[in-house]
Amino acid sequence: MAEDKILLVARYVERDMNEVENADFETRLPNDTELQQNLEDYKHIHQSLKMRLANDDNDQAFIETINKIGKPYFKDETKVVSFKKYKLWLPAVAAILVIGLFIWAPWNTDLYSNYAANGQMLVTERGAEKQTDLDIAASLFNEAKYNEAEQYLQKEYLAKPQNEMIAYYYGITLIENKKEEKARTVLTKVYDGESVFKYDAAYYVALSYLREDKKSDCISWLKKIPEGTNRYTKAKELISKL
Fold first, then answer.
1. Span 151-172, mean pLDDT?
2. Helix, strand, coil proportions of the chain in percent (round to 5)?
3. Over the stretch 111-122, which tens digit does the pLDDT of each residue have?
4. DSSP string of 26-50, one letter each residue
């Protein structure tokens, strides 16, 4: 049903799927033109509405309109009921976007995205002729292909658990793949060490809690970042927004 595909698209975009559901969706996507179009439209309208809200926080009339669109699709504040059928796509997307606003919290995701400057993972030594698994991991990480990168980084991490550079990027990859608790185990060890990644690791432990909407834990870790370090300004700014 079209309604089911809308829900699938929303959950995929808002990263509410587990690994199996995410893999199933991406396997289905290349062979389902309707699903592809739904995904393209959802992303387009999602971005348009987000920009409108960001550019005019005082536009109460606009916000009320969005809320009205969503009301027919809720039995209460958290439970979704069936969609009505529409001839036009836009009302359905607007309605599912409201569901995203109240259930899947895309604004939290956007806050994470705004502060998760993952940077580039650079590992290749000059003169190296053969590409190593770590080179492949770095290439995948830099292309934001975190599912694939995790496989290589996990292998490298298990082989070299004391390498804090590998541990740091592996931890970030785990967060991007919604494995926040596992990421914290890896990154806390980096923070407990004395490498150049110490406070970067603390920053990403904080962001892992942000992804889970655990604001007090997020703030607690942000406060571990001392003034004068490269993450301090962003940490202080993020605290003010929480």
1. 95
2. 70, 0, 30
3. 788 888 778 887
4. HHHGGG-HHHHHHHHHHHHHHHHHH
Reported pTM = 0.56
What is the CB neighbour count within 10 angstroms for residue 150? 20
CATH classification for the domain delimited by 112-241, as one of 1.25.40.10, 3.40.50.2300, 3.60.21.10, 1.10.10.10: 1.25.40.10
Q: Which residues contact 119 (CB under 8 A, 6 or more apart)?
A: none
Three-state DSSP at 226 gives coil
Report the distance separating Cα 125 and Cα 139, nearest Å.
14
Nearest by Cα to 143 from 166, 121, 110, 116: 121
Whole-angstrom Cα distance, residue 55 to residue 187?
A: 36
Sign of the alpha-carbon dihedral angle for 80, 178, 144, 233 = positive
Per-residue pLDDT reduced to its tens digit, 52-86: 444 554 445 545 544 554 444 444 444 343 333 33
Please give the C-alpha separations between residue 204 and each of 20, 33, 80, 111, 113, in angstroms, as whole numbers: 25, 37, 33, 13, 12
Distance, CA of 204 to CA of 224 (rounded, Å): 12
**Identity of the amino acid at 10:** A
Task: Determine the residue type at 67.
Answer: N
Domain boundaries, the chain: 2-104, 112-241
Measured N-to-C along each axis, helices 232-241 and 106-115 cross at an angle, to the nearest 10 degrees, of 160
CA-CA distance, 48 to 12, in Å (whole number)? 18
